[in-house]
Amino acid sequence: MRKSLLAVLALVAFILSSCVGPTPLVPPSIDPNAPVQDGETNVDVDGVLLEWVATGEDLTYDLYIRRVTKSVGAWQLVASNLTEPRYVLTDLEPNSKYEWKVVSRDPRGRTVESPIFSFETAPNLYIVQAVEYNSGGPVEGVSVCFFDESELLIQKTTNAEGLVKFATDRETLKIVMKKYGRGVSIVEGLRPTGKEAKTVPIRLATNHPDPNDPINSDLALNVEILDLSNNPIDISQPIGADFKVKVTFTTQQLPRYIYSKLGSVPGAGLITSPRWLASNVYETTFTMGIAGFKGEVPLYVVAYDANDNRYEKIIYLTIQPNAYAEDNLYRPEKDLLMAITRRRGVEFYSVPGFENISPEVAPEGSNLLVLVRWKLWSADTGKDRPDAYNVYRSFDGENYTLIATVPYSTTFNYAYDFSSELSPGKRVWYAVSAVKDDFETELIDFGSVVPLDSFNVQLISPADKETNVSRRPIFKFKPTKQLTSPEGTVTYNFNVAIYPWVQSEIYPITAFDQEGRLVNFSTTSANIVQVPFAEHKWYMFWVSGGSVVPLYEYPDMLEAGQTYDWTVGYAYAIVEDDDSVAISVACDWIYSSLRYGVDPIIIMEQDVFNQFTVGSGL
Question: Which end of the chain is more exposed for a tag (fewer CB within 10 A), N or C?
């Protein structure tokens, strides 16, 4: 009887438990402490953390999002099978409304959907890219603080491309950038950048690597706008005449350079002239011409101190030039469009002249620039001389952006584009207009160019430290990379240089032809190039008047038992089509500051010299 009773009780318990059923699912909701609430406004576009709460065990989540424009878009599944009730959104559009929802799922496969939540992103987008130097590569891991005057809005860290994005309702910001081993870099007066990043150099520190060291603090840059009689100008009103810029730089270290320029960021004379420069002073005054400018124009002032801390200040001025009565203005004519890729980067920085640029090589860096050059105006054309030229760039051949205004000069009939958006294999278009007073001509098409990738040279034979080498060796080397271009066949060019300086000879040796010209060795492939010593005449040489010239003919074989160094003196790849040239330079160096001149910028030393010792035979 007792066993029967227990059996009945067990059956009743089973039936009752079956009637209770599983715990019901509750639609996810937003916790009051979540960073983004329903209906939130002024939300950032990058690193947006969505959080929700849900009831149940071992739940997983699918997150859906849609952008609301004039019509509601379709739901997009952005993440599925999430095990945590949170997700970080990136790369949202500014000034946009988004809706989102969450679907919870339990292990039984049951689902429940949340209500539809929404938020609106902030209207003003700031994209900042940290770079090693002008035309240099990106810098990862830089702390970027965004300030509205003294209020810290947010701190972010640059990614592998050196980028951070921030959206806000503030219309002008100050940014402070820091990374150990590099100088502090500050930009004040930055306006929303839109889709194109504001590139900011953050250079290697020269003395004090810790950016939080007190000696790197208290940087300030004061700028006064004066008329030519040194009276203050009300910059809320249009400026119709040349003016002065008085700059005072505050730093606890010695000052190094102060630059100023209208229209674009100033730097080294080679790539940003014309611009103003003062060295080793805390205070200076520049006279700024307004020819060629009209409307709202940014005035840039940039200062460096001895630790390579950098301070950039941007002031927007309204320029009101005279009226140009008739259209008899000269139209620009293209002289050259050239993309320049340099294996090693020069930190374009300070000095005003071409020959005086001191290369500060960043081992991991490189340069990529585009030279846009036009023909000089001549009175013989019967057309009025321009006050300036405007240079425009496009990445689609249709939508052009102004990148430089170059006042008329018989010296500076060119502009360099060193935007971080330039990339090997990415086609870019350019156009130029002429400006006089308040008149600007239509854009004149200068064509397009596709920059080449970088490459290096591998020395094969004679190998480094090789002995018993033939007195008439065969030099073998090869490009490290096969370069291609949609603009034509890429041709590599080299020469071979021998250095007998172990024997205290004073000149290097290379091959010349019967007309006294350097012998150039070329190929269109990345295969091994062979240069037999016996097939050429070799001369000791030097540089005279900017040209490489032969001095003394060398014997028809190397000296037995002696030690030499050899390398490829210059190496470059080039491709041309009907409207442009693209060049990629691997090296161009002879000795000290001397070079062959194939690099359009400055010297670039080789990575490797092979030393070998000649045997006693032939």
Answer: N
pLDDT of res. 15:
45
Q: Which domains are seen in the chain, by residue range? A: 26-121 (2.60.40.10), 124-319 (2.60.40.1120), 334-449 (2.60.40.10), 457-614 (no CATH)
Cβ pair 568, 585 in contact under 8 A = no
- Rg for the chain (alpha carbons), in Å? 32
Instruction: Give me the helices (H) in 362-440, please.
Output: none
Closest CA to 38 of 52, 27, 26: 52
Nearest to 265 by CA among 255, 279, 256, 275: 275
CA 618 – CA 604 distance, rounded (Å)? 35
Amino acid at 420: S
pLDDT digits (tens, 9 = 90+) for 357-385: 222 222 245 678 999 999 999 988 999 99
Q: Are 148 and 130 a contacting pair, CB within 8 Å?
A: no
Compute the half-sphere exposure of residue 132: CA atoms within 13 Å on the CB side of its CA.
19
End-to-end CA, the chain: 118
Tell me how far apart the alpha carbons of residues 570 and 418 are, in angstroms, rounded to a whole number: 24
Mean pLDDT for the stretch of residues 598-610:
87
In the chain, the percentage of residues whose pLDDT exceeds 90 is 77
Please give the Cα distance from 19 to 285 (Å, whole number).
Answer: 89
In the DSSP assignment, the letter for residue 110 is -
